[in-house]
């Protein structure tokens, strides 16, 4: 747990008070967990939170929770303004490092596939993978080597080299990435798949840009 967040105690609950809090560069949040007597309302520095979202949004974090000391927590929910993308509220769950959890882990695609060099298009189907592991073993990302993918090839969850103690929570035959044929050789099904992939990648791009603006 190399990432740490400093939380401040929060008593503001009205819309006007929360709006004022955000104007001060703070983001309201709540920390839940079996290890806490009751949920804790907190305020986090918006810049610190933005850095977290850019680097380790799915990592186990060390948070200094007011009155409860340092706690291992996991970011579980983000509420954003539908127009500006501004983060309005976040939820964290306190976790036991020795208990199993299910969480999303970012997939880090590495290398250049021969199929792309031949004019094919890399289609990313999964950007994140849901895994099950002990909380202390949750990795910040999982590398995915695409350097051997030829045109028409694909990688499935079964092909991923997961760290020790990490188990995928998806079916092993779930496609992670594939290389589609060059445009002139594509079938109607591949063109439809491209449209779906392009739409999903655009959604991820917008989400990333929203984080960059925080």
Describe this structure in words.
23% of the residues lie in helices and 39% in strands. The chain has 214 residues and is an alpha+beta fold. The strands form three sheets. The protein has a six-stranded mixed β-barrel. The radius of gyration is 20 Å and the shape is elongated. The C terminus is likely disordered. GO terms for molecular function: 5S rRNA binding; structural constituent of ribosome. One of its GO terms (cellular component) is cytosolic large ribosomal subunit. This is one of the proteins that binds to the 5S RNA in the ribosome where it forms part of the central protuberance. This is Large ribosomal subunit protein bL25.
State the CATH class of the largest domain.
Mainly Beta
Number of domains: 2
**Gyration radius, to the nearest Å?**
20 Å
Fraction of residues in helix:
10-25%
Low-confidence stretches: 207-214
- Along the chain, the helix and strand elements come as EHEEHEEEEHEEEEEEH
Q: What is the beta-strand fraction?
A: 35-45%
Which structural class is indicated by helix and strand composition? alpha+beta
**Sheet with most strands:** 6 strands, mixed, barrel
Q: Determine the CATH topology of the largest domain.
A: RNA Polymerase Alpha Subunit, Chain A, domain 2
Strand order of the biggest β-sheet? 1-3-2-6-5-4
Mean of pLDDT: 85
Q: How far apart lie the N and C ends? A: 23 Å
Tally of individual helices: 4
Extended strand count: 13
- The gross shape turns out to be elongated
- At CATH level 2, the architecture of the largest domain is Beta Complex
Q: In the CATH hierarchy, what is the superfamily of the largest domain?
A: Ribosomal protein L25, C-terminal domain
GO cellular component, one term: cytosolic large ribosomal subunit
Protein name: Large ribosomal subunit protein bL25
Biased composition (Basic and acidic residues): 201-214
GO biological process, one term: translation
């Amino acid at each position: 747990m190399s990432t740490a967040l400093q939380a401040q105690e929060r008593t503001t609950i009205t819309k006007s008070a929360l709006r004022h809090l955000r104007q001060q560069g703070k983001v309201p949040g709540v920390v839940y967990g079996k290890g806490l007597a009751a949920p804790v309302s907190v305020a986090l520095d918006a810049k610190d939170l933005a850095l977290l979202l850019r680097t380790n949004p799915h990592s186990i974090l060390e948070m200094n929770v007011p009155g409860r000391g340092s706690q291992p927590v996991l970011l579980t929910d983000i509420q954003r303004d539908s127009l500006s993308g501004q983060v309005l509220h976040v939820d964290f769950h306190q976790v036991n490092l020795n208990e199993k959890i299910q969480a999303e882990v970012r997939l880090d695609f590495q290398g250049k596939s021969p199929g792309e060099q031949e004019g094919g298009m890399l289609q990313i189907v999964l950007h994140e993978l849901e895994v099950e592991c002990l909380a202390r073993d949750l990795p910040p990302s999982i590398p995915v080597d695409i350097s051997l993918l030829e045109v028409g090839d694909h990688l499935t969850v079964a092909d991923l080299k997961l760290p020790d103690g990490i188990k995928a929570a998806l079916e092993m035959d779930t496609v992670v990435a594939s290389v589609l044929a060059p445009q002139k050789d594509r079938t109607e099904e591949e063109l439809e798949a491209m449209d779906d992939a392009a739409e999903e990648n655009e959604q991820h791009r917008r989400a990333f840009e929203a984080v960059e603006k925080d």
